[in-house]
Amino acid sequence: MAEQITLPTVGAERPLTRRLDDALTNWSTSQRAVIGLAADFADSGEWTATGAASAAHWIAAAADIEVCTAREWIRVGRRLRTLLVIAEAFEADDLSYSKVRCLTRVATPMNEAQLVAIAATVAAGQLPRAIAAWMHRTSDDAELERHQHEQRSISWRIEPDGVVTFTQRLPPLVAGAFISRLTTHVMTNRPTPESIADWPTLGQQYADAFEHLLTEGAGRLLTELVIHVRADGATLDDGTPLPMSVVERIAPEAFIRALVHDAEGRPINASSKRRHPTIRQKRVVKERDQACVDCGATTLLQYDHVPDYEQTRHTVVEELQLRCAPCHQKRHAAQAAA
Q1: C-alpha to C-alpha distance for 99 and 1, rounded to whole angstroms
Q2: Measuring CA to CA, which residue among 61, 55, 92 is closest to residue 75?
């Protein structure tokens, strides 16, 4: 008979938290061992006697995982043989596998100590952007642009429900233009609900925008891609680092709009008596707020008058706030109900 586990009453302690923490600790130890063994197995040649197509195929079958996951274990295990600082931090449980996986894509014996220091200060989900910013600061622009161009790829796979999942690796300028197209379409087209209570999610709206772009093309849809050029380099509007060589290459053919910053790095104010903010005002507010001031969202952003335009009859930067569409609607609904 299976052992019965009696959990303490709620409030006495947190048994699931403790058990999950123990399981994750044990998993981290096992995962480190598996990754090292996977690389050793791949290089040993033992797998050739099993009839498997590759070492990754044998591991995938034995562990009941996808081949791409097994290949990644082998890649990381091999890289850790020469990246001794990262390997030591991984063994000491100072770095998670997620961080190690990210670092081993760009690290060398010359820079791994710097990358480990960066990884220690940010969460795993923020590490790719932090490493990208570091590479932007420390790499030759032309070499970085060449590297990003070489890394471009698109792949896809069929999921169990028949839906096809795409993975795209695009240089930042191409990705920025693509995202701008999709976002502009979403912002300028009201979503159609599947039913009265079933509105499409933001992800579904982006999928619809992608389908429209494929079937209808851009048409007369006008989009704007803002590039910020500062003393410490260039970025897209969402903060994605952009090699200066890209800016230098496109500047002669581009329609350039300047966003002027003061001596302290703040965007300079631009005011107007119009109801709707000007393009320049939008840029200033976007640079100041970066995201929705209520929930931190970075999509479907709108420019909200606070106080309302009906009260002030003017539009100035100090009275504009960046809010996503749901938060914008929620604020006005709360005002109407008050």
Answers
A1: 41
A2: 55
Per the CB < 8 A criterion, the answer to whether 109 and 86 are in contact is: no
For residue range 36-46, what is the model confidence (pLDDT) as tens digits? 898 999 998 88
Q: The tokens of 233 are what?
A: 């380099």
Which structure tokens are listed for 262? 């003061």
Residue 170 Cα to chain centre, angstroms: 13
Q: Give Cβ neighbours of residue 137 (< 8 Å, ≥ 6 apart).
A: 232, 233
Tokens of 173: 């300028």
Helical ranges in 112-218 per DSSP H: 112-119, 127-138, 141-150, 172-188, 202-216
Q: What is the pLDDT of residues 133-167, one digit of tens each?
A: 888 888 888 888 888 889 899 988 888 888 889 88
Q: What are the tokens at 219?
A: 């048409």
Please give the average per-residue pLDDT across 37-59, as a whole number. Answer: 89
Residue ranges of domains in the chain: 22-137, 270-337
What does the DSSP 8-state code read for residue 267?
A: B
- Which tokens in the block code for residue 112? 């791994």
Judged by phi (left if over 0) then psi (alpha if -120 to 50, else beta), residue 217 lies in left
